[in-house]
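Minutes, project check-in
Item: structure for the 405-residue chain
Input as provided by the requester:
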Amino acid sequence: MSAPPRRQLAAELLDGARSLQARYLHDLEELVSIDSGSYTPHGVNRVADWVQSRLTGIGFAVERVTFPPGRQGFQAGDALVARKKGALAESDGGQRILLAGHMDTVFEEGTAAARPFALTGSIANGPGVSDDKGGLLAGLTALELLHDHGVDTYDELVLLATPDEEIGSPASRELIEETARGMHYGLGLECARENGDLVIARKGVADFRLTVSGRAAHAGIEPERGANAALTAAHLVVQIQALNGHWDDVTVNVGVVRAGTRANIVCPEAELRIEVRAATTADVRRVTRAIQEIADHPAVPGTTVEVEQLDLCPPMEDTPASRRMLDNARRAASAVGVPLGAAATGGVGDANLIAGMGVPILDGLGPVGGADHSPQEWLDVSSVPHRIALLADLVASLGDARNTA
């Protein structure tokens, strides 16, 4: 079925979203009442059951992915990959769009009972109300609206719901990257910034371990026979911290330093843990080279430094392709009567992993919320209808390449 003209569709979607507001609030209370912390897999799976049921009801084929136990016996909840084919083949301009949200929160089991969902005026509170149950529910509701309005001018819609975003997606990273492969666009369902901005860029994060090897000796009798790894580590801390300010939008932090076992032994080994955050992959590489250069020239003779990159979450970069998506989002926002800005943030999420696969993506497409990860977490429910309509209209626009040419 062909979609109605853009302005007409936007008005219809906004009317539809308004009519669903009471149901959205009921659903949000139900989801927030489920403890689904990253380390509470049975709670995450209850959320997955709920989301899966709703998706199958609008014609999505849902794959449920169960992960094997990870490090130290960690068991993540299940992930959902839901797919729905549209009526417009890729050869005719149909596009594949990935919507991504997460089902886990940062809160311990029992938080939902201790601090239940509450609605005061237009402000909802509760664990995960903004991050990310409000956003995930908005994405689901937007898909339901498109289904109800017969909008199928796309090649494929995919909704990915993950169980471990709040701890860096250790179980689901491979699934996220594989699901993103070949997508034309990504839409992140984290909630909007407190001022309503979308997120157009997120810094990437690289974690390093530096191991300093020295030589032990009796500190009182023959210290000259030793090579003090702790002293080399101290120089490394100063030199690496001094990298801050060399590049815009780059931060370098030596967060952990360990050295030695006894005061009367010249320290034979030390370890540093370093986090680098940067807005571009090029800057991550520059800082990596700079750290290696410092490590190659230890301050204390007889010591050596090994550099190991432990992890890399790629940046979600502000690119011309994402700017074109933002133009579409602003047109969708204008059509439903809301202003729309775009922000960059140092926080990371699943959108980084999608961007790392070369997929242009916008994040923060959920309702307006804030104070994430705290007892004060909130969601402005008055923003819900407009944000759902905006998201649905954006999906409809991006789904047909003829709209974005």
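Outcome recorded: The chain has a mean pLDDT of 95.
No further action items on this chain.
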